[in-house]
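Hi Y.,

Following your request, here is the sequence exactly as I used it, all 128 residues.
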Amino acid sequence: MVEFTFLALLLMVPLVYFVITVGQIQGGSFAVVGAADQAAKVYVAQPDAVTAQAAAEQAVALALSDFGHQADRASMTTACSPADCQAAGSTVTVTVSLSVPLPFIPFAEGLSATEVQASSSQLVGRYR
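Below is the corresponding structure, written out as tokens. Let me know if you'd prefer a different format.
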């Protein structure tokens, strides 16, 4: 009985931690996909580039907080083709990267389980 309890704890604790970590990574993946999609949609709906960048950053922060991730662990980049992001017919691509922290380790700020990344593209419409 003692051996079973010892081996069960020895094997089950790392397994449970692994499952929780994989769940955190999956949640981070869903978060960056939603954040990139919403940021691209918000970006093309704004009248100028400064307002569009601020609105997209706010959309990323909101989408990440919905999944329980901190916005300061994420970064967002915006690329436009052609260079004018507000011209009709331009393609705006927003890429969001998130460093997913290891669960239950509050003292290790620099450690992360992995970094997940997603991008989304939207066309700037002729009529806004």
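The two ends are 71 Å apart (CA to CA).

Thanks again,
Q.
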